[in-house]
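Thanks for the sequence, V.! I ran Outer membrane protein OmpA-like peptidoglycan-associated protein right away. Repeating your input here for the record:
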Amino acid sequence: MQPVVTTMLGVLTSATVALTGTLSPTSTTAQEEIPIKGQSFGLGTVESGSPAVFTVHGVRRTDKATIVYWSLGLPQDAAGDNAMNYLGPSTTTYFNRKVGPKQGDVALVDSGGSDSGATRIFRPMEPGGKFESCVCSKQKTLFELKPGQAGVVWSAVASLPAEVTEVDVVVGEQIIPNVPVEDGPMEPVAPEENEVSILGFGWPKINDELLANAKTPEPAFYSLTSRVSNLEQTVTRSKGTVDLATDVLFDKDSATLSPKADSTIQAAAAEIKAAKIKGGKGGKDLNVTGYTDSVGSDSDNLELSILRAKAVAEALVHALGSDYGMIPTGKGEKEPIADNDTEAGKAKNRRVTITFEGEK
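Predicted structure:
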């Protein structure tokens, strides 16, 4: 007997996901529950109609990788042959730095599981074979998915540390939060004669050879950190310096101060006032110097650094008053304080430095 499985798609739309095609049932029965760890809706690049349902059924540890079992449920009004469109544009160029099928675009986010408390996003495993495009289920499952069906897919992600017990799953441009991490593949496994994996007919069998030849991406994860300390300062009695990270002041490639920049400018102004600047011809002179990382041309970086220095100088005039004279300038990518070969180093080099003479 073929099982009829009602998913959250059916609950929310008062409909049942249709299980059509020639498939062999497993020991799963209609009375057994399909585990649902979290769900989301998405249209991807589909411009109209009902959204598809993304369901995470399990995140499982194995010896080689972390396996994510998830399904894509098509609405009854879905146009034919467009299941992949619900996943949105491919994001493997971000996660995996390789062009591949979109069912491999799965990542896991650990929010604070590391000793440092930093958020980490674990990336998809990389296929070892020349003609393999992802470490995941066959594309046939989603390519042949019909309206009303829910296709089940497995996708391999880099191994999680033992202390990580819960993750957010990123799939199909959706984020499904707070999914528990469990051990071992899901059971029962669908019969091998089932060429496509439809929800309710067992879980897709992991390709052991594909997984054995897979490579862990380098790095296995990206750290996503927010700067709590926006202001790095060194103030002495004879000379003071205030360094501002431009990432908290400007959007990428922009010289317009962002709305969140005000608190950083005010903090810098408070430090400058406390330093007791001595007067000069221009009043209490502040040298405001902009710097960039090495991305882009020398001329573009120089121009951007000058414009950013001018923007900060103007904001400081409003914060400090007319008693202070501003001398804005830019040096582009010159005089880096960190290695431009790393993202962390580039972030440090993107800065605006305020220097002044303190009272003697």
